[in-house]
TrEMBL record:
The keyword Disulfide bond applies. It comes from the Bacteria. InterPro entries: AhpC/TSA (IPR000866), Peroxiredoxin_BCP/PrxQ (IPR050924), Thioredoxin-like_sf (IPR036249), Thioredoxin_domain (IPR013766). The keyword Oxidoreductase applies. This is thioredoxin-dependent peroxiredoxin. SUPFAM superfamilies: Thioredoxin-like. It comes from Rhodopirellula europaea SH398. The lineage of its organism: Bacteria, Pseudomonadati, Planctomycetota, Planctomycetia, Pirellulales.
Length: 221
């Protein structure tokens, strides 16, 4: 099976071939964001994860507390359905969802898109985990993973991709979550995390499952 990293690397190379100058500017920009890239502001392992109540794709409110009542929770932040790297990640997570659920865990994906914009009908049919709308990336900010997107990236999204993020998100169009995944024990404590300002890099499902397996081993019999 092709790893998620191999898939995102292929997407990077595809974009690099098509837009070499843009990709070089992204490389240079991200290289300067060292502290943020290392997750200096993000909720740390051992800390209690911030609670939240957010609407799902059907407009129904889902709380972290209600998810934790059923067991561990994997919270992953993504930029939106318009992001090819996010779509690779979501599909990779869907493929491994049975393993996550067999370990007693829930998977929830959070983006700033409006509930009616967060997923197409086809995506709703394909994804079997919870997808939530975090308008203005307020919950992402509480987790320390909200990022003011630099102008070079905003220009690329607007001019090259034709994206109107203010409309898509029905609010702030220049603040997005960086790729971040948190594994929470059923008491809401972060036991593992992946945080990287480089939106082209994502947590490997294997690593997420390994963290859940460790939780399972540590749980009292």
């Amino acid at each position: 099976m092709t790893s998620l990293k191999q898939q995102t690397d292929a997407q990077i190379e595809k974009t690099r071939q098509a837009k070499p100058e843009f990709m070089q500017s992204v490389d240079d920009l991200l290289a300067k964001a060292e502290e943020f890239q290392e997750g200096g502001n993000a909720t740390a392992v051992g800390e209690k994860a911030p609670g939240f109540e957010l609407p799902n794709a059907q407009g129904e409110t889902v709380s972290l507390a209600s998810l934790l009542e059923r067991g561990p929770v994997v919270v992953t932040f993504y930029r939106g359905s318009w992001c090819p790297y996010c779509n690779l990640q979501l599909r990779a997570m869907q493929q491994r969802l049975p393993e996550i659920q067999n370990l007693g865990a829930e998977l929830v994906a959070v983006s700033p898109q409006m509930p009616d914009e967060s997923l197409s009908q086809t995506e709703r049919d394909e994804l079997e985990f919870v997808v939530l709308s975090d308008q203005d990336a307020r919950v992402a900010e509480q987790y320390g993973v909200a990022w003011k997107v630099p102008d070079v990236l905003l220009d690329h999204m607007t001019k090259d991709r034709g994206l109107e993020l203010t409309k898509i998100n029905n609010g702030n169009g220049d603040v997005l979550p960086i790729p971040a995944t948190f594994v929470l024990s059923n008491d809401g404590v972060v036991v593992w995390r992946f945080v990287d300002v480089d939106y082209r890099t994502r947590a490997e499902p294997d690593d997420i499952i390994a963290a859940l397996q460790q939780l399972s081993v540590a749980a009292p019999k």
